[in-house]
Design goal:
By secondary structure, the protein is of the alpha/beta class. Helix content is about 45%, strand content about 15%. Homodimer. Heterotetramer of two MnmE and two MnmG subunits.
Length: about 475
């Protein structure tokens, strides 16, 4: 623990701006004298007391509730004082300044500061102390930020489950099974002269197989949780006037992008986050892709290609009313080729055949086939036909987006997860695969097997923070708001 973690801290714990109630929070060892100085009396633990908050001259700043939580029964595991006042920013700043002033004032009896070293908290420092004092693990700490930042109801519920420890419990169960298997391997290494085959009698093969199967289930649920937290970036691309802006508006249910019959109306990206079954999709409308002499439009087209290259999924929009036109089909084929060059094979591209309301169904199918033939005759991408104007086919597109994102119907008990959790679980999977290869070898190298199991355990421990560098902690907690 760094020296700064022993220093008392204070901050406004509610969001900036006006509100009915605002909270100033203080955390640190030995807050009793500060409580007396601020409140004029001792406070009963965990009992709200209504009283005036006064400045150094005894003039009232506000009236509100004071709550005192002695260690270790508090959020941070230290003594915690919360002053709940009216939520005006000036009032809260005055209260915070009063806390710092009262802490620095000399104590009447000893002459020393009432609470030496009280300082303003850094972002996430209250939650960091809760982690360092074993009130929560690192995955639960991250879930607090995810709960605050949740953009959908499903994400909020999943973050709440992670905060309650659902994800951590699965990681701990994996770790316990892994530790047991490591114990067997280490025992075999420590007593090579023994005739007892520890690994065979303990069914090490079966234990490792069960461990891999359990890990696979955790990885599936964690991947779903990461989708709930992160969502996916979906870029709408295509020629001018294919209906890209209309599709964005239709998906968002609002007139976000300007729609006109004039080609090149969209000059820059327009972004909106929507949700489908609780999964956030960050949908980006881009400039129409074509050759242009207009400098402003050329910049928009260049930005469109940048967005396409960074997409998690691309909606390649085709205009069915023009699909049989040779010039249009050739331009679509050129765009398709460029998209294939810029995108990894793992990034899905969905062919969206728009404006079915303008063509007869049979004619529309023929036009789509002709366009596909013009692009090389292969339809390797999933596709959907719709009308952005009437909404026909939008539900099919929504289902397809969830499918290519890898989303499955959310099971009860799904927990939130982050990209670093997925990376750690993938590392565990890789080490267990190497361990299995060693275990199944004709002459297993038990020292290498033991090392792979040790590395797998370290990767698991990194998720909950039992094996984590200070640099990683700094990155995680710096993303929190001040006061949390």
């Amino acid at each position: 623990m760094l020296p700064r973690h022993n220093e008392p801290i204070a901050a406004i714990a509610t969001a900036p701006g006006r509100g009915a109630v605002g909270i100033v929070r203080v955390s640190g060892p030995g807050l009793g004298p500060l409580v007396q100085a601020l409140c004029g009396r001792a406070l009963k633990p965990r009992e709200a007391t209504y009283l005036p908050f006064r400045d150094a001259a005894g003039q009232p700043i506000d009236q509100g509730l004071a709550l005192y939580f002695p260690a270790p029964h508090s959020y941070t595991g230290e003594d915690v004082l919360e002053l709940q006042a009216h939520g005006g920013p000036v009032v809260l700043q005055l209260l915070l300044a009063r806390c710092l002033e009262a802490a620095a004032a000399p104590d009447a009896a000893s002459g020393r500061p009432v609470l030496a070293g009280l300082r303003l908290a850094q972002p996430g420092e209250f939650t960091e102390r809760a982690f360092l004092n074993d009130k929560i693990d690192l995955a639960q700490a991250e879930a607090i930020a995810d709960l605050i930042d949740a953009s959908t109801e499903a994400a909020a519920r999943s973050a709440s489950r992670s905060l309650a420890g659902a994800f951590s419990q699965e990681i701990h169960a994996l770790r316990d099974a892994l530790v047991h298997l490591r114990m067997l391997v280490e025992a075999t290494l420590d007593f090579p002269e023994e005739e007892i085959d520890f690994l065979r009698k303990a069914d090490a093969h079966g234990q490792l197989s069960n461990l891999q199967q359990t890990l696979a289930g955790v990885m599936r649920r964690a991947s779903q949780g990461a989708l709930l937290r992160e969502g996916i970036k979906v870029v709408i691309a295509g020629q001018p006037n294919a209906g890209k802006s209309s599709l964005l508006n239709a998906l968002a249910g609002a007139e976000l992008a300007i729609v006109t019959p004039i080609a090149g109306t969209t000059r820059d990206k327009v972004q909106q986050t929507i949700q489908i079954e609780g999964v956030p999709l960050h949908v980006i409308d881009t400039a129409g892709l074509r050759e242009s002499d207009d400098e402003v439009e050329k910049i928009g087209i260049a930005r469109a290609w940048d967005e396409i290259a960074a997409a998690d999924a691309v909606l390649f929009l085709h205009d069915l009313s023009r699909a049989e036109t040779p010039e249009y089909a050739a331009a679509d084929a050129l765009i398709a080729g460029t998209i294939a060059q810029k995108l990894p094979a793992s990034v899905p591209v969905i062919d969206v055949w728009n404006k079915i309301d303008r063509v007869a169904l049979v004619g529309g199918e023929a036009a789509a086939e002709a366009a596909a033939a013009g692009q090389g005759g292969e339809r390797s991408h999933p596709s959907v036909r719709l009308s952005a104007r009437t909404g026909e086919g939008l539900d099919a597109l929504r289902r397809l987006l969830l499918e290519v994102a890898g989303w499955q119907a959310a099971p009860e008990g799904l927990y939130i997860a982050r990209a670093r959790h997925i990376a750690a679980l993938q590392a565990v999977d890789g080490h267990l695969m190497e361990a299995a290869a060693q275990l199944h070898a004709a002459g297993p190298a038990l020292d290498l097997l033991a090392e792979e199991l040790r590395l797998a355990q370290n990767a698991l421990n990194a998720i909950t923070g039992e094996f984590t560098s200070d640099d990683l902690l700094g990155v995680i907690f710096s993303s929190f708001c001040i006061g949390k």
